[in-house]
Amino acid sequence: MTTNEFPAGAGDWSSLIADLAADRAGELFPTSPAAVPDRETAREFRLDGGELQTIIDRLPADFARTSVPAEASGAIPGHSSAGADPFQNGFRPLVAPLAAAPGGWDAQAIHRDFPILSEKVDGKNLVWLDNGATTQKPRQVIDRLVYFYEHENSNIHRSAHTLAARASDAFEKARGTVAGFIGAPSAENIVFVRGATEGVNLVASACRSRQKPGDEIIVSHLEQHANIVPWQLACQETGAVLKVIPVTDRGELRLDEYGRLLGPRTKMVAVAQVSNVLGAIVPVREIVQAAKRYGALTLIDGAQSAAHLPVNMAELDCDFFVFSGHKVYGPTGIGVLYGRREALEIMPPYQSGGNMIADVTFGRTLYQPPPARFEAGTADIAGAVGLGAALEYLSALGMAAVSLHEAELAAYAGEALRRVNGLRLVGEPPERTGVFSFVIDGVADEAVSGRLRAAGVAVRVGHHCAQPIHRRFSLERSVRASLGVYNTREEIDFLVSLLRNLR
Ligand SMILES: Cc1ncc(COP(=O)(O)O)c(C=O)c1O
After folding, report:
1. 207 is catalytic
2. pTM of the full predicted structure?
3. Best substitution site from 320, 465, 482 to test ligand 1's pocket, by max atoms within 8 Å of Cβ?
4. Same domain assignment for residues 253 and 314
């Protein structure tokens, strides 16, 4: 049994943590070494290997300790009992990732994992609040990339030599890690792409052959351009029509309007799980369920959710899910398209060439089944391996702990920003992540960003590739501060102190 196969259980991570906090560890995990938390526990509570390891790490010192069994863990660097042999397991044990330290979230230790955060920028300490654009990379990912190029580099799947086997193993292991991270049933549901943008383009392009004039594609007003333009192009080519779910003044999707838009002509519903401008968390599960009643396919853009919320394909029940490696503490140039098996199987190839074929003559070509069918040419092999390391890092922190940390920080940041004189937040969604876009009355965006840049604080200024949602709030651009695992209340205080002095 692998983590991918855990059936949905009755428990959940938060109740397990609550029980631990209430000192019920003894009942949950008897001290007998034979009864330490194991795959049964993981299955019951729907934990992945990293989360299980985090719990084990949090157990009081007098409890028997063990590592997550390798087959359940997805081999967490530094924790895997079988990690000592790089060539059997696809990678060497790296610096042990920082699981949440016993007693809580160790912000300083996490900070130390990211070398660039010690960088002086224009003589100032760097404060990275541009996580919505891209995240910084932990040492574990950087080391993994170096290790790949020093010990494993080869093209994959095609050669008989040892390095080809090492590189192929590492690449396919990363695919399994991705599947485990998002709760996909199998590694075969995972297509490596360049990023969320390419993932949407792949689906939009491949689905064209199934669309006809008058069919309808639904997106929301919150979308980033990557989840608008590919569908517009598809509509232009097929005669399908693009429909848009409106949002309220707070930035919530109008689900009543969505219900009215759905109908027998709806062929695709494509929405972001988290808005890259408002930080709004969208009720994607409900959206998917409603779309299914009309037989429409569903695509969830997870670019702003995968690093911040636990995501699980069995729960979301969508046909497609996309996200980018560089926004989940992994490398640029690599990303993921998850597809339900039946959905992937009906799609024709997106690009063609080597790797995606089963047999070629000049008269015809037979294609590989998914995922290889959608991976023409040489993949970003090192990027995929680095992405695997990034997801292992996040799993070691535990996505429940990550989302809890960021939710607390977002609540703190929201309150602090609202107190800045003249500052207007773009939208006030009730369910949100740590993405805050704002304008300050009477102060140009450039003046805001210039002041922050001079103090070493990196934020984003512009339309953030989401013009429609800016215009919904009568804006062309805004300043955006977006949070990640390494951010702290002190950094928020610093940001706010700089903003306060602008007017
Ligand atoms: C919500 C959303 N979707 C898609 C994308 C596109 O991601 P990428 O440029 O990594 O393909 C982004 C990037 O900012 C985003 O925020």
Report:
1. no
2. 0.82
3. 465
4. yes
